[in-house]
UniProtKB/TrEMBL annotation:
This is Anti-sigma regulatory factor. It comes from the Bacteria. Residues 21-89 form the Histidine kinase/HSP90-like ATPase domain. InterPro entries: HATPase_C_sf (IPR036890), HATPase_dom (IPR003594).
Length: 135
């Protein structure tokens, strides 16, 4: 049975939105839509919103490739006055590795965002994207 969970964590300096969806390509549209909505809230330009949607989609695709069976994709959006941070994480199969930073996928992420970082430890992988709004 599929489940979509949304949590709001109000912060002092920023807003945090947590989305948890099954680790399945069919749910990526939910994350792309949430990304676009939050970026629009920050008054990002349309091309910046589309770049961020593509980056989130690419990050999720990288994680889905190494996700364990029945895993959930957790997406944490942190909204500040001038930036949107998106961290996507998933439980992985044993020995999972993300593509090298020299790969095409990483070139896409770094070209479309202000910064992109990743880590894999204890059968859990995460990718963090930060995009600052252009003044």
């Amino acid at each position: 049975m599929s489940q979509l969970t949304v949590h709001l964590e109000p912060g002092i300096e920023d807003d945090v939105v947590l989305l948890t969806v099954p680790a399945d390509v069919g749910y990526l549209g939910v994350l792309r839509t949430a990304t676009a909505g939050l970026a629009a809230r920050l008054h990002f330009a349309l091309d910046e919103i589309e770049d961020l949607r593509i980056a989130v989609d690419e990050a999720c695709a990288m994680l889905l490739a190494i996700a364990s069976r029945g895993a959930e994709l957790e997406c944490r959006f942190s909204v500040t006055d001038d930036a949107l941070s998106v961290e996507v994480a998933v439980n992985t199969v044993r020995g999972a590795r993300l593509p090298a930073e020299s790969s095409f996928a990483w070139k896409v992420l770094t070209a479309l965002t202000t910064s992109a970082t990743a880590k894999v430890e204890d059968q859990r992988a995460s990718i963090r994207l930060l995009t600052r709004r252009t003044p």
